[in-house]
Amino acid sequence: MFGATSVGVGAIVGGGILALAGVAFATTGPSAILAFGLNGVIAILTALSFAEMASKFPESGGTYTFSRKVLSVESAFTVGWVVWFASIVASVLYAIGFGSFATLLLSELYSTQGSVPHWLGEPWSVPVVSLATTVGIGGLMTFRTSGGGAWINVAKVAVFSVLIIGGFWMLTGQPVSKTTAELRPFLASGWGGLVQAMGYSFIALQGFDLIAAVGGEVREPTKNIPRAMLLSLVIALLIYLPLLFVLTTVGTDGSQSIRELAASDPEAVVALAARHYLGTSGYWLVLIAAVLSMFSALQANLFAASRIALAMSRDNTLPNALSRLAAGSGSPWISVLVTTGLVCLLIQLLPDIAAAGAASSLIFLVTFAIAHWLAILVRQRSVLTPPPFRVPGYPAVPVVGGLACLALAIFQGIAVPEAGIIAVMWIAIGGVLFLSLFARRARLTDVSNIASNPELSRLRGNSPLVLVPIANPNNARAMIALADTLVPAALGRVLVQTVVVAPHDWDPLVNHRPSAQLHSVMNEILHASASLGVRCETLTTVSAEPMMEIARVAKLHQCQSVLLGLSEITPEARDTPLEGLLGQLSSDVVVLRAPKDWQLDQSQQILVPVGGRGGHDYLLTRLLSSLSREQQRQVKFLRVIPTDTLRADQKRIRKELDRTTRVNAGRVCEREVVRSNDPVKTIADRAGTAGLIILGAQRLGPRQKLFGDFTRKVALESDCPVIIISRRG
């Protein structure tokens, strides 16, 4: 908890108050104290929402991770992209702030000795110091995982404590009348000025969210992340509010108010006020506090930004290289270097740092509002596994906090239009990169994540439905088991359909055969459902045309998938009723052909023959991830090529196969290229009798045959079960 709290304290305490106290005082006068206090209330409300989600999802990535669990992959990328940018820009601001105060401190030190080096007065000195410090911190982070700067935080808090204690000591010797006079007029610009000051200064309390961004590296995260968030904010407020009170009451000489002092020199108001009541030593303390604050805030934001990039790269929404970890420390060294490089680039390129800072503030406020909304969604949808930490006063806390953040964000966008322009430009760049480079793999990874962890479907407000028409009682157990694997009944719905095939003028009292067949099928369905523990729904209809009835039910219930059973495939059957049905379905289709009494858990080995382009990647990825969720299976992708294939073509084919396996099953699978002029026999031999073959089939139109010659031959010559998949039309 100490390390996690250090991340928050390092990012919050110091830099914001030193940079923004003057702006707040100049805008609203003594009520800047109230502005920071109200911002503190909003920040605590936001931290509570963050804490609930972080206890539910104790992983690195912060707001991005929360949005990935609850929203679509496209929305999650947008959130992660802008949060990453906001942390990068915050790092730029703190890097330049460190450079400014560091050069000023060096100048003051040299001036006491009578000579100041020429280079300290050059315009390039601040950027050079900023770049050197950023590179140094980034270099250290590639070798170690810590990012809190704990001892720097202790020193920084100690310096601020001296400033506060010294101010209250001076206050005890000051007449009460002077103290009250300095606090008047309290609302110097009315309530409007107070709201303006809140909008300008809210970013001073940003930083608690960085604890969630590094949540994957916190021990006992369900307990320590909520505690660290709230503790870091409490520490910040216990420093900010007394310090602002001291600066207001004893920080001037009586000839001018704190508002007038701030208006004349907003950036130096804290140093000037400290010099008034503590003398030269107070001025030096502020410089020391500023250097320490900017350094620790830069360190914390760099640390958190690199972890956001790490989380995004693991989901393939950023390049995979960013997720590589250093062998010794486990630090994501490439992510750290890329983030550091972007910060260094922006230090040199951003023409208006103030506008960039406003953009950072605007983005953080928007993402905080989104976080409150996500907290409501997580609470509503976490039926099976509620968050360990729960927000007190729900739903008032996320609703009030979200509206407050949104209102301040709107104000920020109106007050500083450049902030909105910068934010829109960054989002546009991210959108182009996502659609052109990352979209396909990111969506496949998302499909795999949902299949591996079906609770994500419920968190996103989905209740997927798989339709399972069963006519053969021998297939009931295998079909229900596979349906439950595709869509676990606790998180989705398995709808088993039986069709009583009878003529339009059927009289059940005269013709008992359809009823007897239904009775036999239903007995097997109930027995399989009970023995497997699958709570499926059943639907029985009467129709003379069962295939049309299945298509009608699938469309009526908007089924995500339809699972069909196939007793046999004959070489002569060229236009089967099943193929006619597939031409009418718009759902994903999985066709199972399995021996009698086959059980799903018997097939430990899965063989996936591939022939080139595929076209059913999303369905294949979902199926493989679902099959491997309950038990580990050996997956092999097989490509059979003619014996006379040229060597250059073989090399190209191997690369294609590697790419296919990475897209559909990651790296946890085998791959093999076999040279043979009899691909059907090769596939059947590789599958053996204890395996499971998965074949893909395209649906290009209502008259397109599903079972081509190759599919028929593989199914006929293989003794093991075969699953044929076809993506939705």
From TrEMBL:
GO molecular function terms noted in the UniProt entry: transmembrane transporter activity
Top-level taxonomic group: Bacteria
Alphabetized UniProt keyword annotations: Membrane, Transmembrane, Transmembrane helix
Keyword Transmembrane helix: yes
InterPro entries in UniProt: AA-permease/SLC12A_dom, APC_superfamily, UspA
Subcellular location, record wording: Membrane
A GO cellular component entry from the record: plasma membrane
Domain UspA: 605-725
Transmembrane region(s): 7-26, 32-55, 76-104, 124-143, 150-171, 191-216, 228-247, 282-304, 325-349, 355-375, 396-415, 421-439
PANTHER family linked: AMINO ACID TRANSPORTER-RELATED, INNER MEMBRANE TRANSPORT PROTEIN YBAT
Protein name listed in UniProt: Cationic amino acid transporter (Cat-1)
